[in-house]
Each structure stands twice: as structure tokens, then as C-alpha cells.
Amino acid sequence: MRAAWYEKQGPAREVLTVGEMPDPTPATGEVRIRIAASGINPGDIKKRQDSFGIGMAYPLVIPHSDGAGRVDRVGDGVPAEWLGRPVWCYGAQSYRPFGTAAEFTVVPVENVAPLPDSVTPDQGACLGIPGITAHRAVFVAGPVNGHTVLVQGTGGSVGLCAVQLARRGGAHVIGTVRSSSEEATAKNAGAHEVLLNDQDFRAHITALAPDGIDHIVEVAFGANVENDVELLKNDGSIATYATDNAAPKIPFWQLVFKNIRIFFLGSDDFPVEAKMAATRDLNAALEAGWQGFEIAERIPLSEIAQAHELAEHPARPGRVVVTL
Fold it and tell me: What global pTM score does this model have?
């Protein structure tokens, strides 16, 4: 099969190789997918760059955890009805060496979801990590029906999904954006109100939610935690999946006095049931008419280094997809 891989970490053009390697065979409980589109997430970039100083987990890595295509082989114990089905997958390179930047990938069948007829492989390839993270971030503290949910950073992929999922969950959704150019995207995803995260943010959100916020989906924990605590009701909650500061200060007593719950979310280790619930709800949103992600770039596998560079330094808004 044609595949891209790296055997050392570093800049994309220095470490990514495209070539041929043997076709994989699904083991018991796995399916093999002929990949049509492979999504690039920030985590894929960080692994390749060794951003966390962990080093190479495997001698050779085919990058990317998310992808979409069609099941062409199944392992023992997998129902034959999966054969030939269009699907999207996640976790292909989570605790595994070989991801979706290849003509074929094999994943456990529980990491596969049907791709709705109305959804393109490009969209399917973008759903996994951001969609599952967003679902957990919205619902980890419990149902949101009738609650006010603040989604910080709705211009990002996780924020965009969180807005849609919270809206479908019955919440009143307030989104924040870094620039006015992102407002339309957040509105289209389902935000009731969209605010610029500027010096007037506190006053605006207090006017919109005078009784306080029930739950916050947080992308910049270090920068926002103090404001978040001020905005939350007693017994409110924060679900955070990223931070601008790896060692942020936490306003401990304010959190204690308001009985705030904080959930730190790493998508690789969510419960299996939570991941499967996320796939069902994401598919339901798409089938109900949610447009999903804007695709900014479609780059062939042979130019994967360029795709990684565009994901690191976008030329225009939207997701970068590697096509096969």
C-alpha cells in the first residue's frame, strides 16, 4: 500500500516519507478500511514534533488518528455486515503505530462509525478527535437541557462541534470567538449568541446570563479560569481540553466557595461508552442537516508535508484533509 510515515520526530519536510509498505491485515475484532480521506489534528502535529518531549512511542509511525473510507476486510469476530460499508474512524494512531495516512488502516471495530449517506469522506475524516472531545466536554457533567452553556473558542474544531452538540442537547449556548470573522461560523453551528473575547466580554455575558453560567467548555484554561469562576453559578462546572499555559494558577478558594467541578479531558482515554455515544450524536446532527466543518485544503498523500505545514500555519480558515 501507499503510505506516509516518520521514523524520527521533527519538521514535516525533514521527517515525513511517502512510499510503499505491506498491506495490513485486520486482527480479531478489527476491520480494515480503504482510506479515502485522512484528517489532521493538532495532536498529530504535536506527536510528529515531539511537543511534549515523550519521544517516539514506536520505531515507525504512520500519522493521523482520524479518517474515512470503506471497510474492505474484517477480522474474526466482526459481523460480515460491516463489509463494504462507508465509515469514519477515530483512534487509529492512539496507542497504536499505524494511523490513517495510508491507503489502508486497521482499527478495532468499536472505533468505527457508519458514515451517513449525506456526508462526504472529507467531513468524516474530521469528526473523530474534535467531535468526541466536544461531546465529552459538553456532557461530562451531566445533561445540559435547560442549562446555559458557554463554549470558549467556537472558531476551533472542538468548539464548533461543542456548540452544535450543546444546542441539540437543549442548552442555551453562548459562544466566544477571537475575531468577528468567526461569528458566522459559530452562529451556523447553533450558538444563540456569539461574543468577542475582548475587554467588554464580562459585561456582555453578564447581560446575557445575569444568573450565571451552568457549564463552560474551555479551550484556554490558564488564560480564562479566573473569569470562568466568576461567571459560573454555584455548583457549576468547567470541562477543559486545552490550555495556553501548561502550569496555570488556579483560584482555589473561589472554586471551593462555589463548589465548582473541573473536568480535564484527554480524548484517548475517554470511556468506550462515551466515545460510542459521541459517534451516534454526531451522526444524528449531520443527518439532521448540520453542515459540519469547512474544508480549507484537500492535499494528496504525496504532498503530506505541505498538508502538515498548512495545518500548522493555515492559509485560510477550515480543516486540512489528506486525500487518497
Answer: 0.96
